[in-house]
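hi! just following up on the protien thing from before. the input was this:
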Amino acid sequence: MAVRRGLSASLLSLMLAAAAFFPTPALAQPPEANGKGPLIFAAASLKTALDKIAEAFAAETGKTAPLVYASSAILAKQIEQGAPADLFISADLDWMDYLERAGLIRAETRHNLLGNALVLIEPADANTKLAITPGFDLAGAAGSGKIAACTIAACPAGVYAKQTLDALGIWAKVEPKLAQADNVRNALRLVSLGEAKFGIVYATDARSDPRVRVVGVFPESTHSPIIYPAALVVTSRSPDAARFLSFLSSPAANKIWIEQGFALLRK
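and the predicted 3d structure came back as:
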């Protein structure tokens, strides 16, 4: 059964409440740099690829684009609180929708940039055989260990994780074993350091860390489409922000996105 995208009012309220209790850092300030370009707020799962893209942008333009990574929920709330971001790249549509409803992004610049997949991972030296099918015994396979995930109530990867566990009929058994991290890269780290038996992360996160292996891929039909939208922030005053947004779909950037395992939605 395909999962419908979009949040009910009650779920959105739950997400906002959870975001309010995140250990949100102080409002991000752009670091000092020669030839400083736009300040980019981006979902943590983009780090490996976006670091390389920012380097390519700097090589082409001479402008350094400072990057701030966190959960999309934290970044969206920071933008709402006045953080000086020029560009926001979310790991889901809902947090971009949230900022658009608040009039905080330039809607005409918004577009869907990338796609991803959701996977089950374990430490690279393990060799668990699990078929991801309805009712599969993930909780039993974890034993006394933990299952790492991004914050279920608000972090996009966590929201997708709960959707798929619900759709597969195993949420009730898995929930007590969850170790929830504030962003998906920290959930990945719990597994790569051996502090969690399994983890639910994006396919691109798994590719970025040789200390983990993919046990299986969750069916696309069990969760909302994983889409990364990008848009300029209304308060942006950077003359290079639109240029960086355009560069995200350049041949140079597309090559990096593909190498890191993302699906291109804008070419």
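The chain has eleven helices and eleven strands.
The domain at 118-222 is CATH 3.40.190.10 (D-Maltodextrin-Binding Protein; domain 2).
cheers
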